[in-house]
Design a protein that fits this description.
With 415 residues, the chain is an alpha/beta fold. The chain has helices spanning 7-12, 17-27, 40-46, 64-72, 77-82, 91-103, 117-125, 137-151, 162-178, 193-205, 221-227, 249-258, 267-281, 291-298, 300-303, 319-332, 349-359, 392-404, and strands at 36-39, 49-53, 84-87, 107-111, 129-132, 154-155, 184-188, 210-216, 261-265, 307-311, 336-344, 363-370, 380-388, 408-411. Helix 2 crosses helix 4 (64-72), helix 4 crosses helix 6 and helix 4 packs across helix 9. The longest helix is centred in the middle third of the chain and has 17 residues, at 162-178. The radius of gyration is 25 Å and the shape is globular.
C-alpha cells in the first residue's frame, strides 16, 4: 500500500502549467468544453461582473471527469489490465467509472454502507463496480487502500494527486482562454484538487489575478490547514461535494502558496445560490457548485466592481433536496410563510379567520390544528397556516390586520 507523503515530499511534487496543458491535450475530445457565460442578472445582484463556467454540463454533471481521465490515460498497460480503485461517494466515482468503462479499464469504487442508494446506482450505471464497506468515508478509504495492495490495483485519489489536479486545472485554461482579463477567480474547495489545478494555471497566465477559495462554514478543513485555524468540521451541509474533513497534503501545500484567501460561507447563502442559479440561469447546480456565487452573496464588498469567474463545478443534487431548497428560499424571501394563530375551539372561528386571508388575497396552502399539546385552556387551539403571497409586504399587512382584530399571531421562522 502506498505510504502517505511527508511535507517535504509534497513540496517536491511538481505541478506546472505545462502539466495542465499536457492534460488538456490528453483529454481533448473526451470531455465537454463547457460554456462560459456572463450572467447579467447575477452581476446586478452581486455588484460584480459574474462569469460562470458550466461544468455541470459534463456528461456526469461534474468537472471531476477531467482529473479522473487524465490519471487513467497515464496508466501503464499492466495497470490498465489490473484496474483502478477509489474511495468516493460523489462525483469522482462517476467520472472515474464512466471513463474507465470507455477505456476498458476495470474500476472499483468503495463507498460507505450509508451512501444513498441513488449514488450507488448512478456509479454502477456508468460502469463502476461498487463495494460497500464501513459506516464512514474514512473506513471506506482505508478499505480501498487495503484492496489496492491486496489486488494489485492502482489507487486514483479524488484530489491529492498531481495528475488529477492537472486534469482539473484544464477548467482554468478554458476560462482564461475565453476571458483572459478576469480580475478574480473564486473556486470551491473540498480536498483542493480543483483549486490547485486552476490556481496553478491562473498564476502562470496572469500573476496579478486574485484567487479566492471558498468552503462551507461547516467544513473549513482547508481553511484550517492553510490559515492555522481550528474550526470544527461536521454537520449536515448542502455542499456535500466539498464536505471534506481532511484536505490533501499535496493540495494544501500548493494552495498555501497560490491562494490569496479562503472564505467560509453559511448554509443559507449556499441555498440561496442554488436557488438563484436555477431561477435566473435555468441551470441545476449542487451545493458545492454554487459555493462561488454564495461567496459573492456573503461578501459583496470583496467582489464589487471586479470581473469575477467562478465554476459551477457540479450538478448532482437530489431532487427532493432541491425542492426543499427552493421552498426554503421562497420562505426567506417572504413569498411563503407559516402563521401561528391562537383561536377559540368553537364553530365559525376558522371561517372568520379565513375571511381575512381572502381579503388580503393571500393563498392558503396547508392548515394544521393543534388542540392537545398546547399551553392553552381546553377551549383553545393553535392553528398553523402555510400560505403564499406576492411578497413579504403582503404577508406583513395580513399579520398586522390579524393583530388589530385581536388574534394572537406570530410568524414561524426558518432556522
Amino acid at each position: 500500500m502506498t505510504q502517505p507523503l511527508t511535507d517535504a515530499e509534497h513540496r517536491a511534487q511538481p505541478l506546472t502549467i505545462d502539466d495542465v496543458r499536457a492534460a488538456a491535450a490528453r483529454i481533448d475530445g473526451a470531455i465537454v468544453r463547457t460554456p462560459m457565460a456572463l450572467s447579467k442578472t447575477l452581476s446586478d445582484i452581486t455588484g460584480a461582473e459574474v462569469w460562470l463556467k458550466f461544468e455541470n454540463h459534463q456528461f456526469t454533471a461534474a468537472y471531476k471527469e477531467r482529473g479522473a481521465l487524465n490519471a487513467l490515460l497515464q496508466l501503464t498497460d499492466e495497470q490498465r489490465g489490473r484496474g483502478v480503485i477509489a474511495a468516493s461517494a460523489g462525483n469522482h466515482s462517476q467520472g472515474l467509472s464512466y471513463h474507465g468503462r470507455r477505456l476498458g479499464v476495470p474500476v472499483t469504487i468503495v463507498m460507505p454502507k450509508t451512501t444513498p442508494a441513488v449514488k450507488v446506482m448512478q456509479t454502477e450505471s456508468v460502469g463502476g463496480q461498487v463495494t460497500l464497506h464501513g459506516e464512514t468515508y474514512d473506513e471506506a478509504y482505508a478499505h480501498a487502500r487495503h484492496l489496492e495492495s491486496e489486488l494489485g490495483l492502482t489507487f486514483v485519489h479524488p484530489f491529492d494527486d498531481p495528475k488529477v489536479a492537472a486534469g482539473q486545472g484544464t477548467v482554468a485554461l478554458e476560462m482564461l482562454d475565453e476571458q483572459p482579463d478576469l480580475d478574480l477567480l473564486v473556486i470551491p474547495i473540498g480536498g483542493g484538487g480543483l483549486a490547485t489545478g486552476m490556481a496553478t494555471v491562473a498564476r502562470a497566465l496572469n500573476p496579478k489575478i486574485e484567487i479566492i477559495g471558498v468552503q462551507a462554514e461547516l467544513y473549513p478543513s482547508m481553511h484550517n490547514r492553510v490559515k492555522g485555524a481550528d474550526g470544527a468540521c461536521g454537520g449536515d451541509t448542502i455542499a456535500e461535494g466539498i464536505a471534506v474533513k481532511e484536505p490533501g497534503g499535496f493540495t494544501a501545500t500548493r494552495l498555501a502558496e497560490l491562494l490569496d484567501d479562503i472564505v467560509l460561507v453559511p448554509e443559507p447563502a449556499l441555498e440561496r445560490a442554488v436557488s438563484l442559479l436555477l431561477q435566473i440561469e435555468k441551470t441545476v447546480v449542487e451545493g458545492a457548485g454554487a459555493a462561488g456565487l454564495a461567496a459573492m452573496l456573503t461578501f459583496p464588498d470583496r467582489f464589487a466592481g471586479k470581473k469575477v469567474g467562478t465554476v459551477l463545478c457540479g450538478g448532482n443534487i437530489d431532487t427532493r433536496l432541491l425542492a426543499n431548497v427552493l421552498l426554503r428560499d421562497l420562505a426567506r424571501s417572504g413569498r411563503l410563510a407559516r402563521l401561528r394563530v391562537t383561536l377559540q375551539d368553537r364553530p365559525g372561528s376558522l371561517f372568520k379567520l379565513m375571511r381575512q386571508f381572502d381579503a388580503h388575497d393571500v393563498n392558503i396552502i396547508e392548515i394544521y390544528h393543534q388542540r392537545i399539546f398546547t399551553h392553552l385552556p381546553a377551549k383553545g387551539l393553535i392553528t398553523d397556516i402555510e400560505c403564499e403571497a406576492r411578497d413579504e409586504r403582503q404577508i406583513a399587512d395580513l399579520v398586522e390586520r390579524l393583530l388589530d382584530l385581536g388574534y394572537e399571531t406570530k410568524m414561524v421562522q426558518l432556522a
